[in-house]
Structures are given as structure tokens and as C-alpha cells.
Amino acid sequence: MNISSRCFRFLLALVALPLAAVAADAPKKVLVVTVTAGFRHSSIPTAERILAEMAAKSGKFTVEFASQPSGMPAAPGRPRPGPKGAEDPAHVEALKKFAADEKAYWEKWTPQLAAVLQKLSPANLKNYDAVLFASTTGDLPLPDKQALVDWVASGKGFIGVHAATDTFHKSGRFAGFPPYVAMIGGAFRTHGPQVTVECKVDDPKHAACAGLPATWTVFDEIYEFKDYNQARVHSLVSLDKHPQTKAPGHNAIAWSRTHGKGRVFYTSLGHREDVWDPAHTDKQGRKNSPEVAQQFQQHLLGGILWALGLAPGEAKHAP
Fold first, then answer.
1. Which residue segment(s) compose the domain that 257 sits in?
2. CB–CB of 254/268 below 8 Å?
3. How many structural domains is the chain composed of?
4. Is residue 17 part of a domain?
């Protein structure tokens, strides 16, 4: 090799070094999904805004959204029995009308949900480092459900917030998708009235718990889970008693786990606007102080950064 060739390669190496540094420092890309095929939380618009603000402030990641189609109305509501009970002919007729209205509604809107969710196609997922499901519900018409689960297992991140566990589990008209439930670590079973709980921080060294008080008092809708195995997750935040009956025992609030080579973080909090937003105002007054909302944002940000491989924390390595 002559001197000019060696000089040329040396110059190329010098140019490549700063380019590699820029690539290493480039923000990660997160796809936030807020599409619902079941119940839709009123806090979703607040969640979208706060997540965008958190991403911008952190500088560590950017967000893109797969949101509900514009103009999509709320689904028909199932009629409740009146004073004469469920056998009342008027109620029976109302149920028939509801069934027809619901069928027509989903026939019209499911293709539009599917169009929005093309962002989760196997080809497009290659553009992201993590996917975040914020209060998604029901059987979402993804292009390829198994491909999403496999994509996470390949070494990507998945973050679930609140009703992300009310997604792809078998219930009512929903067929469910067990591989998703296994990936996230559990499925919504039920909840009682919104309640004040004293959460126990189980791993203060994890990024999702950094800065949280040892006992974290929050007012929210607290989920109870099915298809959940404490041995298959790394508990981050929990209750040591049932949220409603107060019977002693483990009740999960947030956890981390690995799925293949991927990282999964889930928090069940986030039903209420005043859990998300320190500045939220309500005619009935706030149930959570601005400080609690700031703590929730810190909790979620830590979980996101951990799922992206940008922050420390343990996880349960389970199949």
C-alpha cells in the first residue's frame, strides 16, 4: 500500500469517528399507540401531550403517534336493565338494537383503525427502537400481531401504560392474543372504584423508581390482574394489600421483564388526567397533587429510558 492510500484511509477514519459519535447520540425513536377497540379513556389526549413534552425535554428519544382516526365517534353503549329487570321486553329490544348498532359500528371503523395501525407493520417497525401502548384496549387490528411480539423479542423495547393490559386478552367479544399477554406479563381482570393507595416501591435502584418515596400515595383506578405470575416479572411498585378489601397480599402496580432480548416495562397507573398532568384542572378539584403527577412522569420516563437501554435497572429474565 502506498503512502497516498494510507493517508486516504486515515482521513476516512477521522471522518468516520465523529459520524459514529453522532449516530450513537442520536435520540431513540418511540412509536406511541393510543388506538382503542374497546373502552376509551378520557385521559388519552392528556397522555399524548405529556408524552410529547417528556420526549422533547429529555432529548433522549422522539415520539411518533398512531392515534385514533379523526372523527371516530364513541362506540354504542350497552343498555342497562331498567326497574323491570333484564327480562323486560323493552330492555330485550334495546339489546337487539345495540347488537345491530355495535356490529355496524365496528364494520365501518375497524378498517380505519387498521389503516392507522399500519405503522406497526413489520417493515415499519424497523424504524423504531420501542413501542409504547398508552391505554390501548381490545383486539387491535394490527397488521401482524406475532410480528410485534417477535420484534420486541429481537431486542427492542415495549412500554405499556394502564389499559395496555386491557388489550389482546380474551373478554366478551374479544378473542385475545395470548403471546401479547405473555410478553407484557399479565392481563386486566377487573377494577373497583378509584381509590387512594399507598404504593410500595420495591426496587428504588431501578430507573422507573428513582426519586419515588418509599411509600408513594396515589389516587387512581387500580387494576387487578389475571394471567399474572409474580415469579415471571421484576416487581417495581406494588401494594401489600388488596386495593378494595385491604386483605393482605401482593397486588402488582408496575413491573419490568425481559422478552427474549427485549425489555418490557409496564405501569398500571395513568387512568386519571391529574395523574399525568401537574397543571390539570377539574371542576371537582384534583385528587392528586401536582407533586404526584410529577412523580408519575418521572416513574414513566424512567421506565421508557430503561426499555430503550438508556437507564439502569433489573428485570426478571423469564421465558
1. 28-74+83-317
2. yes
3. 1
4. no
